[in-house]
From TrEMBL:
Catalyzes the synthesis of alpha-ribazole-5'-phosphate from nicotinate mononucleotide (NAMN) and 5,6-dimethylbenzimidazole (DMB). Its EC number is 2.4.2.21. The lineage of its organism: Bacteria, Bacillati, Bacillota, Bacilli, Bacillales. The keyword Glycosyltransferase applies. Keywords: Cobalamin biosynthesis, Glycosyltransferase, Transferase. Transmembrane segments: none annotated. The active site is at E318 (proton acceptor). It comes from Alteribacillus iranensis. GO terms for molecular function: nicotinate-nucleotide-dimethylbenzimidazole phosphoribosyltransferase activity. It comes from the Bacteria. It catalyses: 5,6-dimethylbenzimidazole + nicotinate beta-D-ribonucleotide = alpha-ribazole 5'-phosphate + nicotinate + H(+). This is Nicotinate-nucleotide--dimethylbenzimidazole phosphoribosyltransferase.
Length: 348
């Protein structure tokens, strides 16, 4: 499979006829119409996405992409680059928050090295490394367009493989990469044309002074890179991250297979904006698991026209907020499948 396939893949529109049928059916369930609120809308959205009157989202699959960022050399992160590899080891030993939450929802879990600076040949790691981390986009383009397309393609392939080979019916995207909030802020600033201060936050725990430094670095970097804001591939190549590209590719794969996607927080939603820019229809298959405390996430939500399922003041990443929200989608499916209708009451 080539990257051109990823960029040109057909994404079907959600089935609006089935959505209307399911909405009518839900109104005949043993409850006042609309009394289950957003759960009813989630159920009809799932029906439209899957083109099935009785949608199913189990089993879920969690795909985490790990990569490093050269921009950490500019002092924009509270943690050193080496933490990416340490956390990757933690994932493989099933000691991270996302591992715990994956077990709670019986999810398939895969960790993909798409661009870590460290070479890891550990058991359980899927290697799709494009390069050993991006460049510092303050001074150079983060990657070439060819590398960005290669990461998109790898993400597309891994996403499609999880769906077709493992039977996953809902795809959750996660990431690990020290410095990726800086890349995400730069991508969203470029795509939205919003002020840097509105899309840049504390990341993994920066002080107020360090946040201001981070904002200055991004501001200068966007001037230096001379980005074509109307070309999402140019934005991705000049200030993006390899894991952001790979997540975008995986989202395209899921949408092409009519598989619902749960976005996590800030980084995942940044990837979603890239996917949407490349394939507008892909956004029709997305739910946002939670609202991150990162200020840029609010901007991303506006651009995606999405309302998060949860708001728990989280900012960890890894796919954790998405995994926590999965039971809501499962409950929506159960509501349609298992609740009685008023006609059923006549037979009691």
């Amino acid at each position: 499979m080539t990257t051109q396939n990823c960029l040109n893949v057909h994404i079907p529109s959600p089935d609006t006829n089935i959505k209307k049928q399911v909405a009518t059916y839900i109104d005949h369930l043993t409850k006042p119409p609309g009394s289950l609120g957003r759960l009813e809308t989630i159920a009809t959205d799932l029906a439209a996405m899957t083109a099935s009157p009785f949608p199913d989202v189990s089993p879920p699959g969690i795909l985490v992409f790990a990569a490093d960022h050269g921009i950490v050399d500019e002092g924009v992160s509270a943690f050193p680059q080496e933490i990416t590899a340490k956390m990757a080891q933690n994932f493989l030993h099933r000691g991270a928050a996302i591992n715990v939450f994956a077990d709670q929802i019986d999810a398939h879990f895969r960790l993909v090295d798409i661009g870590m600076a460290t070479e890891m040949n550990a058991e359980g790691m899927i290697s799709r490394k494009v390069k050993h981390g991006t460049e510092s986009f303050l001074h150079l383009d983060a990657m070439t367009k060819k590398e960005a397309m290669k990461a998109l393609d790898a993400g597309y392939e891994e996403g499609k493989k999880m769906i077709t080979d493992q039977g996953v019916k809902c795809l959750i995207l996660g990431e690990m990469g020290i410095g990726n909030t800086t890349s995400s802020s730069a991508v969203i600033a470029a795509l939205s044309k919003k002020p840097i201060s509105e899309v840049t936050g504390m990341g993994t725990g920066l002080t107020k002074d360090r946040v201001q430094h981070k904002q200055h670095v991004i501001t200068q970097a966007l001037k230096n890179r001379k980005i074509n804001r109307d070309d999402p591939l140019d934005v991705l190549a000049k200030v993006g991250g390899l894991e952001i590209a790979a997540m975008a590719g995986a989202m395209v794969a899921a949408a092409s297979q009519r598989t619902p996607i749960i976005l996590d927080g800030f980084i995942s939603s940044t990837a979603a904006l890239v996917a949407k820019a490349l394939h507008p229809n892909s956004a029709e298959y997305m739910f946002v698991g939670h609202r991150s405390t990162e200020p840029g996430h609010d901007v991303a939500l506006q651009l995606l026209t999405q309302k998060p399922l949860l708001e728990l003041d989280m900012r960890l990443g890894e796919g954790t907020g998405a995994a926590l929200s999965f039971p809501i989608l499962k409950a929506a499916c159960a509501m349609v499948k298992d609740m009685a209708t008023f006609r059923d009451l006549e037979n009691y």
